[in-house]
Amino acid sequence: MSSYYHNSKNEQAYLDLLQHVLTHGSEKGDRTGTGTLSHFGAQLRFDLADGFPLLTTKKVHFKSIVYELFWFLSGSTHVDYLQENGVRIWNEWSTAEQTARFNRPAGDLGPVYGHQWRNYGATKDENGIYNNDGIDQITQVIEQIKNNPNSRRLIVSGWNPGEAEQVALPPCHTLFQFFVADNKLSCQLYQRSADLFLGVPFNIASYALLTHMVAQVCGLEVGEFIWTGGDCHIYQNHREQVELQLTRELYTLPTLTLNPDVTDIFAFNYNDISVDGYESHPAIKAKVAV
């Protein structure tokens, strides 16, 4: 089967991919025992000037997207920050049972995204605690965008082969690359494992938000967000929900607003970010959240 590509000014690209996998996906087993319909290789493109890609056919919990992104950017790998801000999406991976598999206390997720983004390749001390001697990929890539925007090395990797098996859930969104042209910043994400119903709407919005934030602190406009998926799948127990979602009417994508005074990627707070009218949109109020 050939790879799937779609370019759209709204979420129709995503919905078409759902339909494609429902119709043409291969039945496969998976680590959960649930079973999936899967397709290998897909790409969706979103022009961020046309709206912020937060779904209107299903409510996506934007608060969780924002706080999780802040958590990644902070370099933290403990769920305390998320839980303190009412975000529960990492709870199942941070239980004492899960973390004990790696000889870590409850809540300590190990070298997940934040560690790889901010302290990649760090060494450990005699107690097995990471030293702060790794590569701060976020700081590094922002400096590169500012000083060498034509570079083809504007890359952040979340996948470290030496540490991928030291966490309960190895990174699904594994690598992203920035591109600067015509004073616009674009970003492409590669996602090795893509849960199309639950995870991908979250990931698209998260990296679109990151692109806006990085563009602002680098003095650029936004270009495209390009999502590239490897194993793109729909779990068998999500089929009915996906079919329902595909019957819903599309609405205009919301507009993202950032506090223009923020010039440091690590200085954003929750009140600096809003999606205009999303939560009050009557179409969103009537839909079930991810």
Automatic annotation (TrEMBL):
<dbReference type="Pfam" id="PF00303">
    <property type="entry name" value="Thymidylat_synt"/>
</dbReference>
<feature type="domain" description="Thymidylate synthase/dCMP hydroxymethylase">
    <location>
        <begin position="12"/>
        <end position="290"/>
    </location>
</feature>
<dbReference type="GO" id="GO:0004799">
    <property type="term" value="F:thymidylate synthase activity"/>
</dbReference>
<protein>
    <recommendedName>
        <fullName>Thymidylate synthase</fullName>
        <ecNumber>2.1.1.45</ecNumber>
    </recommendedName>
</protein>
<keyword id="KW-0545">Nucleotide biosynthesis</keyword>
<feature type="binding site" description="in other chain">
    <location>
        <position position="31"/>
    </location>
    <ligand>
        <name>dUMP</name>
    </ligand>
</feature>
<keyword id="KW-0808">Transferase</keyword>
<dbReference type="GO" id="GO:0006231">
    <property type="term" value="P:dTMP biosynthetic process"/>
</dbReference>
<dbReference type="GO" id="GO:0006235">
    <property type="term" value="P:dTTP biosynthetic process"/>
</dbReference>
<dbReference type="GO" id="GO:0032259">
    <property type="term" value="P:methylation"/>
</dbReference>
<feature type="binding site">
    <location>
        <begin position="152"/>
        <end position="153"/>
    </location>
    <ligand>
        <name>dUMP</name>
    </ligand>
</feature>
<dbReference type="InterPro" id="IPR023451">
    <property type="entry name" value="Thymidate_synth/dCMP_Mease_dom"/>
</dbReference>
<dbReference type="InterPro" id="IPR036926">
    <property type="entry name" value="Thymidate_synth/dCMP_Mease_sf"/>
</dbReference>
<feature type="binding site">
    <location>
        <position position="61"/>
    </location>
    <ligand>
        <name>(6R)-5,10-methylene-5,6,7,8-tetrahydrofolate</name>
    </ligand>
</feature>
<keyword id="KW-0489">Methyltransferase</keyword>
<dbReference type="InterPro" id="IPR020940">
    <property type="entry name" value="Thymidylate_synthase_AS"/>
</dbReference>
<keyword id="KW-0963">Cytoplasm</keyword>
<comment type="similarity">
    <text>Belongs to the thymidylate synthase family. Bacterial-type ThyA subfamily.</text>
</comment>
<feature type="active site" description="Nucleophile">
    <location>
        <position position="172"/>
    </location>
</feature>
<feature type="binding site" description="in other chain">
    <location>
        <position position="203"/>
    </location>
    <ligand>
        <name>dUMP</name>
    </ligand>
</feature>
<feature type="binding site" description="in other chain">
    <location>
        <begin position="233"/>
        <end position="235"/>
    </location>
    <ligand>
        <name>dUMP</name>
    </ligand>
</feature>
<dbReference type="GO" id="GO:0005829">
    <property type="term" value="C:cytosol"/>
</dbReference>
<feature type="active site">
    <location>
        <position position="172"/>
    </location>
</feature>
<feature type="binding site" description="in other chain">
    <location>
        <begin position="192"/>
        <end position="195"/>
    </location>
    <ligand>
        <name>dUMP</name>
    </ligand>
</feature>
<dbReference type="InterPro" id="IPR000398">
    <property type="entry name" value="Thymidylate_synthase"/>
</dbReference>
<comment type="pathway">
    <text>Pyrimidine metabolism; dTTP biosynthesis.</text>
</comment>
<feature type="binding site">
    <location>
        <position position="289"/>
    </location>
    <ligand>
        <name>(6R)-5,10-methylene-5,6,7,8-tetrahydrofolate</name>
    </ligand>
</feature>
<comment type="subunit">
    <text>Homodimer.</text>
</comment>
<dbReference type="InterPro" id="IPR045097">
    <property type="entry name" value="Thymidate_synth/dCMP_Mease"/>
</dbReference>
<comment type="function">
    <text>Catalyzes the reductive methylation of 2'-deoxyuridine-5'-monophosphate (dUMP) to 2'-deoxythymidine-5'-monophosphate (dTMP) while utilizing 5,10-methylenetetrahydrofolate (mTHF) as the methyl donor and reductant in the reaction, yielding dihydrofolate (DHF) as a by-product. This enzymatic reaction provides an intracellular de novo source of dTMP, an essential precursor for DNA biosynthesis.</text>
</comment>
<feature type="binding site">
    <location>
        <position position="195"/>
    </location>
    <ligand>
        <name>(6R)-5,10-methylene-5,6,7,8-tetrahydrofolate</name>
    </ligand>
</feature>
